[in-house]
Each structure stands twice: as structure tokens, then as C-alpha cells.
Amino acid sequence: MKSKLWLTLTVLLFLVVNTSYFWMGKFGSLALPVFIILILVFLVLCFALLQQFYFLIKDNFKDRNKNLTIGLMCTLLVLTFFKPKGIINFESFESKAVLIAQREGVANCMTILKLKENNRFKERVVCFGISEVTGNYRIKNDTIFFNDIVHGLEEDDFFEFAVIKPSKGFNDANHFEMIRYKNKQDTVGDFLYVIKNELNKN
What we know:
Helix 1 (2-18) runs antiparallel to helix 3 and helix 3 (31-58) packs antiparallel against helix 4 (64-82). The chain folds into two domains: 2-82; 94-201, Lipocalin (Beta Barrel). 34% of the residues lie in helices and 30% in strands. The chain has an eight-stranded antiparallel β-barrel. The termini are far apart. It contains four helices and eight strands; from the N terminus they run H-H-H-H-E-E-E-E-E-E-E-E. It is α+β, with helices and mostly antiparallel strands.
């Protein structure tokens, strides 16, 4: 009976981990404690697996159903360990990214913005948690406008528009920055380094 309970918990953990692509970005700073809880659950299940395996050896593997249960539990935990982001790359099913801009801040905090071929965008910020902002974009002349914005758990605003300019840190025509502005009164903006730009190919 215990082995089936442990298997059920293992299956639940496996499903949570493999669907994290869809929900992790909604938690913001709560993503870190959720991640820690998942690690603790994983460790408890590993300990339970070793305990159940010990009982199997003690019984000379006589219980066929229990053998299958523990074997499946072992398989799921091994997959979870080697594929902590899930066994399916769900992003590969999305529209192609035609522009990618990013910046690494203090404490290795990373902001990544992707403009998709289908005029959707996604910004992902990893900094003591994970937050995402999604929406649509349109291009008018040399300006990128963001609209239909869906915020994460902790965000309440986003940038209204952005422009791409040559990077000030390089004296060549190969490096660019995306400067994003909250509104027309914003004279400072927020910059990201453009690492991929295929907008002109559309």
C-alpha cells in the first residue's frame, strides 16, 4: 500500500515538473520557495525509493506488482533528475523568435525578451524568482509598440514602446540595443542588448 502511495506522489511531482513551463513564470518571487519545496519533495521520494528497494531485496523480489511500482517510481525520479525542466521542450512548439534581447543585472539576474514571428512577445525575468509578461507587439516605422499585455503575479505595468539603436558600448554597426520606454514622458528608458534580430526578414 505504501509503495502505491509513494508512486502517486512521484507521478504528481513528475507532472508538476513537466508542466512548470506554463506556471512557473506566474509566481514571481514565490517561484523560489516553490522550487525549494519541489527539491525537498524529490529528496523525500528518493529516500522512500531506497527504503522500498531495500524491502524488495529483503523479499527477494517476490511481489511482481510491487516490483513494477518501484520500477516505475525509479524511472520517473531518474527522468526528473536528468530533465528538471521537463522531458518536452514546449517552447519549440511556439512561433519562431525573430528578435531576442537580454541583459544580465546584479546577482546574475537575467531579463530576456523575445519577439515572436506571430507578433506575440514574452519577457522572462529570473531574479530570486521567475516572472513573465506576455502580449502582442506591432511595428510602426522604427518603433515597436507593446499591447494586450498580460502581467505576472507581481507586475502591474510594462513598457509602452521600444526602439532599436546602435549600442553605445561598441564603435561598429554590428551591436544594437533595444531601448524600452514606459510612455512618451519617459526620457531615460530601459535597455536590453539585442543578440538576435530577424525582424527585417519578415
